[in-house]
Amino acid sequence: MSHPFHTNEQGHLVVGGVDTIDLTKKYGTPLFVYDVSLIRKNARAFVNTFKKAGVRAQVAYASKAFSSIAMLQVAKQENLSLDVVSQGELYTALQAGFPVDRIHLHGNNKSFEELSMAVQHNIGCIVLDNFYEIELLSEILEKHDKTMDVLLRVTPGIEAHTHDYILTGNEDSKFGFDLANGQAEQAFEMLQEIDSIHVIGLHCHIGSQIFETDGFVMAVRRLFETLGEWKQAYGYRSQVLNLGGGFGIRYTAEDEPLPLGGYVDALVEEVQKQVELYGMEFPEIWIEPGRAIVGNTAVTLYRTGSIKDIPGVRKYVSVDGGMTDNLRPALYQAKYDAVIANKADAALTEKVSIAGKCCESGDMLIWDMEVPEVEYGDILAVFSTGAYGYSMSNHYNRFPKAAVVFAEQGEDQLVIQRESYEDLTRNDLPYDIKERV
Ligand SMILES: *Cc1c(COP(=O)(O)O)cnc(C)c1O
Question: Is 359 known to be catalytic?
């Protein structure tokens, strides 16, 4: 089975102990429903595996995957740290009362305002990405008479694709300082001259939706090669090694991710080897899972509408959402699995394709899916929409954004309201029409 949920006596899909059909009656559709106990379970799989290994660690939730006040409250409660990439994400974290010392700021084009906000709020760490930021940050720190811990984001020349890794020499990436061409070392040297900035270690992030550990192991080796050189040349000791996110999850039955702790075990094992090889102290390890914390914990509930059977070609079933609440299929042909939530136990008798309702033929959620007989007004539940679903949602065709519900142990709570039409025009201003000849 490609999802962690079950069905009740009425044959309805249950999420977080709550009947999803009841939820659609209460909150409407499209609706994101998160099983909060699964968020906790995923978070603990990472945190506890580090604990068991006796390794100091921070598990920083990449909040771009799904950021809201309620979500960040749960992340805080589960002792996660937090990655933010913008003032909006930082603002949300502050509103949620997230401990500032566990917030890290990322981004390949951090603005003066973003860096200033991070400095003013004393966040834990800034991940420096480019030379421009070094100057900007040192100016801002001087102005505020403060210091800041930073990691240097480096590109190790490893591109992880779901099942294979490409070793490149000079990496062609908009993120980070390249290791191979010496720019990372040049940045490090520059930073040695700036007293207000403390380079506590290195960061790399090799990709997303990765199912194997080899890429991470290669990245650890590459980082230690560099740290070995910097130890010799500058007597540098890295306190922190941040190995990024990208841990794969199951979207369809074809995906076979490792248990989350398995990624941690592989990282810890390789760091241990390298530490011995180079005669270094074991650093604190940071990781940055986004998708692996929330991805499999939510479903999106839609109501089915028009059904178009084109004989000998295909049967289209349209739902009341689409690329506005789940951009991933249109953006990169992402695959999803789903079930008719009000007939979750019924035998599968036909094959249909699920269409969104936007004016784009690319707005398809699922191609060729097996279903029981679908009728107008059924509820479709798409699995594994917890990451990069709501967070990428948009206003194309002026559809209001969906609502989000948290369900846990049989109780449900609205945590993001459905947008209203007034919300859609809230920032619109009328044009002062004058007679123009
Ligand atoms: C996107 C991103 C992550 C999270 O990626 P997931 O695939 O959601 O785990 C972590 N770190 C960085 C730097 C990222 O850009």
Answer: yes
